[in-house]
Amino acid sequence: MCILSCKKQQPSSFEVAWSYNYKEPAEALSLAKTAPRIEMDHIILSPDGILSVLDIEDGKLIWEYIFSENVYIKSDEFILDEQSIFFKDNTNHEVFSFDKNDGSLLWLNQIPKEVHQFSNDGIDDEFIYLSGDGAEIFKYSKDGSYIDEYDLIRYGIDTDARSIRIFNNQLIFSQRWRFTEDCPDGYCGRIISIDKETEEVLWEYRTDNGGFIFEPILLEDEIIYAGVTDGPGEFVALNATNGEVIWKTLGIIGQSYTLTDSMVLVNDGISLLALDKFTGKELWNTGLAFGGGDGASNIGYLNGFVYHAHSGRLWIVDGQTGEIVHTEERSPDGSPFQLLAVSDGKVFIQTFNALYAYTAWE
User: What predicted TM-score, i.e. pTM, was given to this entire model?
Assistant: First the structure.
C-alpha cells in the first residue's frame, strides 16, 4: 500500500485556467450528488438551483435556466441525449426537458408519484426511465408523453431501483435491501434484467456482500461493472447478456468508481485503489490521509493521472503506480473540493462557491 510518505517531490503544474462563480448559494444535496457533466465543448452543472451550461474553453455562460424555489437536481447524474437534457424534480413531482443548445424548455410533465432523489436514471433511443420512491420505474417518451409504470414489487423485493441501464431489449436495474427473511444479515443487493416490453425476468444476480446504493452500475462493451456500498463488500463484473459473473473481487466498498481502458478505479471511503478491468485483480491501493472519505466524491482519470476529492482536499495520483504526486489543500475560495469532471486537458472541480477549471497535471 502506498501512503502519504511516498508522495513525489516535483513542481506543481496544477493551475487555475478559469473559474465560474455560482449565482446562488449551493444547495448541499445538489452539490454533493450531481457531478458536472462534460458534453463536447460544454460543461453542465447545477449546484445552486440553476441549470447552467458553460463554454469549456473559457468558462463563459452559454445559457442558464433558473428553477423555482426548492427545485434542485439531486440525482447522481444528468440524463441527456444529442438534443436534450432531462431533469426530474422530486419536490413537485415533475420531469423537464431542455434544449441542450439554447436552454429552452421543451416540455414539462407531471410524475404520478414521488421519485427517488438519489437514483441514477436510464435512457435509450426512445424513452427515459425514472426511478420512483415506491419500488417503481416511470417510463416517458422523449417528447414528454407518459408511457407506463414498471411495478418492481412483482419481482419479489419491495425496494426501489437505485441505478437503471438499458441494453438492447433489457431494462437492467440495481437494488439494495436489508433485514428481510431472505436477507437476515442485512446487507443484500441485486442486479436484475427484465424485458422492456414483456417485463419478464431475463436474468438476476444477487449478493449478500452488500447493497447497490448510490453509485451507478456501469455498462461498457456488454459488461456491467458494479460495486456495493455497505456490508462485507464486493466489486463484480457481469456479462450483460446473461448476467454471468466474469470476475468478482471481495472486500471492496465501492463508494464511487470509474473505468479506464484497463482499470477500474475505486474510492472505498479511506483509500483509492485500482483493479484490473479484465480480471478484478488489485493493482494498487493508496491510503489517503485525514480519513473520512466522502461517498459522493467521484474519480476522474486523464492522461495517466487519477483525480479525487477527499476530506476537502484534491488528490492527484499516478495511475500506473498509485503514488500520490500532488495534493491541493484547499480551493482558491477556501471551501472544500467536491465533485469533478475531466476532459480537454483540464480538471473541472466544484466547491461550495464556484466551479474551477485547472490545467491537468503533467
Answer: 0.92
